[in-house]
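Duplicate of #3305? Posting structure anyway:
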């Protein structure tokens, strides 16, 4: 089974470069959208405007699946949204008191909003599944995997959950919104660079926004073993899977 990643945005699937019709039914489509849309609209998250926006994003995902189904696609993996309240970029940029953080140091409000989004996504997929009886439409709970990495990094061979490897400023998060990973800037009269740590394999967060290769490897292994699929899907039987190095 071949895999095709489909970009879901304001364009229709027909506007993208698509595989030839004879292999549509043999392909596996993975869809992931929401993180940038979500974090760029944090100012309205929790309001009625925010809810309507999130519903629009989810509706776009469902519409794209239906469009691909109409073209012959039958197997879809839909990844949910990550726990952005644990991201160093958000933690470092928020004025807060202790009640805003959970026991693992993550922002309660944002992670609750993510859970709400994921529940709406799961319900939308349930409804879409009824409309597409011949499709394998799988909800992939990568949120659970990544949340566990942030909360218990040492249990997975890592050391740092909510601290960025590549950043500037040190402290609990090593993230400064004025200086992103790899950039050099004049701050307080000195040229400083947001550089990478010496041991990225011990970090969950690479640059405060994205995950490290070490974390991505663990997330990928969790996806491939199928334990985070709903409903179950025999990925190992249908695809030629290689070990994740």
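Output from current build:
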């Amino acid at each position: 089974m071949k895999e095709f990643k489909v970009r879901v945005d304001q364009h229709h699937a027909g506007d993208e470069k698509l595989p030839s019709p004879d292999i549509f039914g043999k392909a596996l489509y993975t869809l992931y959208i929401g993180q940038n849309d979500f974090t760029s609209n944090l100012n309205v998250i929790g309001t009625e405007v925010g809810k309507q926006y999130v519903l629009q994003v989810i509706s776009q995902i469902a519409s794209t699946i239906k469009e691909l189904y109409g073209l012959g696609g039958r197997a879809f993996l839909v990844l949910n949204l990550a726990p952005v309240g644990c991201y160093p970029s958000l933690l470092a940029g928020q004025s807060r008191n202790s009640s805003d953080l959970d026991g693992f140091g993550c922002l309660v409000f944002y992670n609750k909003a993510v859970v709400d989004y994921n529940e709406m996504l799961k319900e939308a997929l349930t409804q879409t599944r009824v409309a597409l009886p011949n499709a394998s439409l799988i909800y992939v709970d990568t949120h659970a995997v990544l949340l566990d990495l942030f909360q218990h990094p040492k249990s997975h061979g890592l050391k740092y959950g909510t601290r960025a490897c590549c950043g500037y400023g040190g402290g609990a998060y090593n993230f400064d919104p004025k200086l992103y990973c790899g950039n050099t800037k004049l701050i307080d009269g000195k040229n400083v660079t947001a550089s990478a740590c010496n041991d990225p394999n011990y970090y969950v967060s690479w640059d405060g926004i994205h995950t490290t290769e070490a974390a991505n490897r663990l997330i990928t292994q969790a996806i491939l073993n199928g334990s985070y699929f709903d409903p179950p899907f025999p990925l190992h039987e249908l695809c030629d899977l290689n070990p994740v190095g």
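Confirmed duplicate; merging threads. The first strand starts at residue 2 and ends at 5. DSSP finds seven helices and nine strands in the chain.
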